[in-house]
Amino acid sequence: MQNADNEIVIVNSGGLPRQAETDEQLIGLWLHGRAKGTQIVYTAAVKELMTFVAKPLSTITLGDIQAFADRLEQQALRPATRQRKLATVKSLISFAHKLGYIPFDVAKPLHLPTSKDTLAERILDEGEVRKMLALEVNPRNHVLLVLLYAAGLRASEICGLTWKDLQSRTEGCQVNIFGKGSKTRTILLPASVFHQLKELRRGAADDQPIFRSRKKGHLRPMQVWRIVVKAAQRAGISKAVSTHWLRHSHASHALDRGCPISMVQRDLGHSSVATTGKYLHARPSDGSANYLSL
Fold it and tell me: What is the DSSP string of 232-286?
C-alpha cells in the first residue's frame, strides 16, 4: 500500500506496518534498550539457535526449537544454562509474533527445563566474608570488596560508580546506583564504610571513577571478578566464588540479623519481594526437625 507521501509501506495481515524486514532488524529491535551484558548473552544464545537451524526466523517451527533443546541437553550443560538459553529463544519468538513478523508464537508450547535451586550454596558465612576483607591488603581492592558486600552491588554497578554518586549524610553516606533495568536506587552506608571511601578518594574529581583501573579509567566487571576470586582463594575458600556471591551474602546476612525484607528488596533493587524472599528459604532460621524428640 502507499501512504500520503506515495511511499510504499509493507503491512502485515493485521493491517499494521511491518516493523522489521530481516532477522537482523528484528533482533536489533528486541535487544534495544537492554543492558550491554544482557545483549551479549542474548545475542550469543540466538546465534547458537540460528546456526543450528540454518534457516530464517520466519520459517522456524516448534520442531526446530525442540530439536535445539535436545541438542543443548546432549551437550551436558547445566539445567540452569539450558533454561537461560531456551528462555532467551522463547522471548525472541514471542517478540517476533507480537510485532507480526511471524504468524504464530511457535515457541510458546516449549517446556523449559527445571533446575535445582543452588542459592544456598552461593552464600558465604559471615566469617568467610570477614576473612576475605581482612586479608586484602590492596587499599582499592579492599574498599571494593567492602562496598560489594555492604551495598550488595552487582559488578556492573560498582564499575560505573563515580565520586559524584556519593553524598555524605549526618551519619555515614549514601550512594546512588544506576542499575539493572535502567533503575536508580539510593543506598545508605554506615560511617565506617564512608571513612574507607574517603581515604581512597585522595582528591579525585567528582566525575572520576571511584574504582580506577591502572589506566585511570573505570574497572571492567571481569577485573572485579578477578579481585573477588583472588580474595576468596587467599581466604582459603575452595568454592567457585564470584562477585554475585557477596551480593547473595549481603541479602542473607541482613535478613538473618532482622532487617525488614522490604528494605533488603529496596537496597538490592529486586523488582519483587518474592525474589528477596528466596534468601529466607535458602537459609531458614528454624525447621520442623527442631520440634522432634531426637
Answer: HHHTT--S---HHHHHHHHHHHHHHTT--HHHHHHHHT-SSHHHHHHHHHHS-S-
Q: Judge if 147 and 49 occupy the same domain.
A: no
Catalytic annotation on 71?
no
Domain contains 153? yes
Residues 195-208, mean pLDDT to the nearest whole number: 92
Q: What is this structure's pTM?
A: 0.74
Tell me whether residue 163 is in a domain.
yes
Of 154, 218, 248, 250, which one is the catalytic site residue? 154
248 has catalytic annotation: no
**H or E element, residue 105:** none
Query: Is 202 a catalytic site residue?
Result: no
Last residue of a domain, one of 114, 137, 169: 114
* Cβ(89)–Cβ(46) below 8 Å: yes
- pLDDT at site 10: 45
- Active-site choice (131, 142, 247, 253): 247
Check residue 188 and give its pLDDT: 92
Determine the structural domain holding residue 28 and report its residue range. Answer: 1-114
**Which element (helix H / strand E) includes 101?**
none
